[in-house]
Amino acid sequence: MAVTEHSNQTIDRRRGIGPVGTAARLLVGALLLGSVVHGHLARGFHLSSWALGLVGFPALLLALQWLRARRTPTRLEATGPVSHALNLVVFLALYLLEATSDAALIFYGTSMLLAALRGYGGCEVLAVSNWLLRRDDQIGCAVFWPVDYLERRGTPTEGPPSDRAGTGGGRTGARDDDGPVGAPARQQRCEAQVGLAAHEYGQRLVTHSQPSQ
Q1: What is the pTM of this model?
Q2: Is the dihedral of CA 40, 46, 50, 52 positive or negative?
Q3: What Å distances lie between residue 188 and 103, 179, 183, 185, 201, CA to CA?
C-alpha cells in the first residue's frame, strides 16, 4: 500500500475538482440516494438505515481520523493501487450485506454530494471527516480518480514558462537581449553602430580628398 504523509499546516481552499468532476459526483450521489428513497417509498421507511448512513458511519470515520491526527498530525495520502482496491472492497462488502446495504448507499451518496459542493478532490469516504476536522487526508478513489485525472490533463496551462516572470531559471520577458522588450533595444544599437561607421567613413573620404601642403 502506497502511504505518504505530508505536512497539514496549510490547506488549499481552492476547489480541487473541475466542472466534470463536480457533475460526476452530483450525478452518482443523487443516483445512490435516489435508489434508497425509491426503495423506502415502495417497501417502507427504515429509520435505522438513515441513522447509520448519516450519523453512524461518519461518526466512526471522524473518530478514527481524529485519533490518527492526534498521534500523527501529518497529512495521510494513501492513494496507491492497494488503497484503491481496499476502498472498493469495503464499499462492496457494506453494500452486499443486507443490514448495511441502504446505509452504505446513503453514506456514500451524501458524501459525494458534500464533496461536489465543497470542491473536495479526495475520496468521498473522508469528505465529512476532513470537513469537520479541517484536514486534507487522502485515500484512493477508484470511481472518480479517472475522471479527475482526465479533466486535469485537459486543462490548459497558464502559458509557457518564459512568459511568466520569475520562472525559467530567472529568465523573464523584460530582458534587454531576449523577448519582445529586447527587440527595439537591439534595433537601436544596430542603427547607432551603422551611423557611427558611416560617419567615420565620411571623415576618411574628406581627409583623403584634401591636397597635401
Answers
A1: 0.65
A2: negative
A3: 76, 15, 9, 5, 20
Q: What is the pLDDT of residues 35-80, one digit of tens each?
A: 999 999 999 999 999 999 999 999 999 999 999 999 998 988 888 8
| 3-class DSSP assignment, residue 75 | strand
Burial 78-113 (b: 16+ CB within 10 A, else e): bbeeebbebbeeebeebbeeeebebbbbbbbbbbbb
Dihedral sign computed on CA atoms, order 164, 170, 174, 178:
negative
Nearest to residue 17, comparing CAs of 203, 144, 158?
A: 144
Q: Residue 3 has which C-alpha cell?
A: 502511504
- Judged by phi (left if over 0) then psi (alpha if -120 to 50, else beta), residue 200 lies in alpha
Sequence letter at residue 180: P
The DSSP bridge partners found for residue 138 are 77
Neighbouring C-beta atoms of residue 43, cutoff 10 Å: 8
Asked whether the predicted pLDDT for residue 4 surpasses 70, the reply is no
Residue-wise pLDDT tens digits, 80-113:
888 888 889 999 999 999 999 999 999 999 999 9
- Residue 211 backbone phi and psi in degrees, to 5: -70, 145
CB 118 within 8 A of CB 131: yes
183 φ, ψ to 5°? -60, -50
